[in-house]
Amino acid sequence: MKFLNYGSVNIDLVFTVDHMVEPGETLSSSSFFRSAGGKGANQSAALAKAGAKVTHAGKIGLDGQFLVDLLSGYGVDTSLIRLYEGATGQALIQLDKHKQNAIVLFGGGNMQIRKEEIDDSLALFSAGDMLVLQNEIVHTSYLIEEAKKRGMQVCLNTAPFDEKILGLPLHLVDLLVVNEIEGAALANSDKGSSFGEVLDALVQAYPASEIVLTAGKGGAYYGYKGIRLHEPIYDLPVVDTTAAGDTFIGFFLTSRSLGHDNQSALRYACKASGLAVSRLGAMGSIPLASEVFS
User: Fold this and answer.
1) Exposed, middle or buried by CB within 10 Å (0-12, 13-18, 19+), for 10?
2) Structure confidence at residue 191 (pLDDT)
3) Which long-range contacts (CB under 8 A, 24 or more apart) does 159-164 make?
4) 292: which of 146, 164, 196, 252 is 20 to 30 A away, CA to CA?
């Protein structure tokens, strides 16, 4: 199976702070660093590090060439990352003393993707390949519909969740990946619903889709028709949660493509995610296959 990840490519600007800045407050940062990010790029890096054959498609400005070089170094095919004259997507990240983050996004090239570019990219893939998507670029509905016309499988990660998600053709999605907040919003669940209840509601609402629900310290859940699976977290000291979900997706998808069953895929994905959050950074924190499949 080949993976086409049509997704965001961002420059992450990370400020380490005591607490999240309040309105009207000026807050000093104890450290700052610039790194590669974007949920799409992170997931491509995770897929490649896990051992999958993945092509990343997207758009960057001249300031983002180092991101292409980094992805290529991980083994990602970057031939479908296009250049334009504007700015690359940016993410301003606050990382507090509890290792939680708050993120402000600027779309940049992620918002400048054209349908003609999508058509040219999809033409290189066929039935049985998988399109991986998130909610940080434009034309997501078009991507889903055109990929399904080609017989491709579609995996959609609903992050970051907003009202646009509800307008997507979710009935066409083969694998829907949500965290506990996104899952509850998509399922329209009552406050206080358990992870199992949210999962059940999603399975009922989207019967054609496999559902994966990541639940932080609660581990990860899988649901499809009458099947329910759960895997606890791989518990390590938390340093930075930035790429946890992206790492999970990359290793879950790769595990399945290698022939592992869903329970094993959940286990490997939880282990990879646990290793990632024990390290600082986004793309650089994602473990290698040799650290996970052992």
Assistant:
1) buried
2) 81
3) 159/39, 159/134, 159/135, 159/245, 160/39, 160/105, 160/135, 160/136, 161/135, 161/185, 161/186, 162/135, 164/135, 164/140
4) 196
Instruction: Give the span between the Cα atoms of 132 and 109, in whole angstroms.
Output: 18
Start-to-end C-alpha separation, the chain: 22
Interatomic CA distance for residues 287 and 116, integer angstroms: 35
The domain ranges of the chain are 2-9+37-88+114-292
Q: What are phi and psi of 169, to 5 degrees?
A: -75, 70
Q: Which CATH superfamily is domain 2-9+37-88+114-292 in?
A: Ribokinase (3.40.1190.20)
Among 77, 129, 240, 246, the active-site one is 246
CA distance 147 to 141: 10
Name the phi and psi angles at 35, rounded to 5.
-145, 170
Q: What global pTM score does this model have?
A: 0.92
Is 69 known to be catalytic? no
pLDDT, tens only, 171-184: 999 999 999 999 99
Percent of the chain at pLDDT > 90 equals 89
